[in-house]
Amino acid sequence: MSDLKPSEMRNRYSIAARASLAHRSKHQSGKDNPNYKGGTLDKSGYRLINMGRGKQYPEHRIVMEKHIGRPLLAEETVHHKNGVRDDNRIENLELWSSRNPKGQRIEDKVSWALSLLEQYGVPNRPFTASDLCMAASCGF
Q1: Average pLDDT for residues 48-71, to the nearest whole number?
Q2: 56-58 and 76-80 strand pairing
Q3: What pLDDT digit, counting tens, does each position of 10-49 carry?
Q4: What is the phi/psi pair of residue 125, to 5°?
């Protein structure tokens, strides 16, 4: 048995425990942890990236903004195709828009569709003036 008194044993254990925790927190957390994938997860499962000054930003939005080369608009959201909220590979992400036309008249819907084309382009090619002329010749 040890020659230490019980109070000395408690102090000795406490010092060792504190040193272990300090070592773990210094060498096993964040980037030093082998399981670290960057950022933290929020309560909904989205990965957050520290942007400095205590600000955290959803990683999937950062990835999409870099991909499209501009900040996301307020009405735009990023959808995870496979439903896994921390899978932020660009091939798993889709840009969605929640903007809807204000009116229900055909003219309003066509006008709204043309504004979407101007903003986002035609799939697989940019929107051009000839697209607008073609739409105008349809009588709208």
Answers
A1: 90
A2: unpaired
A3: 555 566 665 655 555 555 555 555 555 566 888 888 999 8
A4: -160, 155
Q: How confident is the model at residue 140 (pLDDT cuts 50, 70, 90)?
A: very low
Residue 90 exposure: Cα atoms within 13 Å on the Cβ side? 7
Helix H or strand E segment including 105: none
Q: Check the CA dihedral 17-23-29-30 and report its sign.
A: positive
Instruction: Give CA separation, 82 vs 85, 87, 90, 91, 112, in Å.
Output: 8, 8, 12, 10, 30
This prediction's pTM: 0.56
What's the Cα-to-Cα distance from 107 to each of 86, 98, 100, 110, rounded to whole Å?
41, 20, 14, 5
Cα distance between residue 27 and residue 5, in whole Å: 33
CA 140 and chain centroid, separation: 39
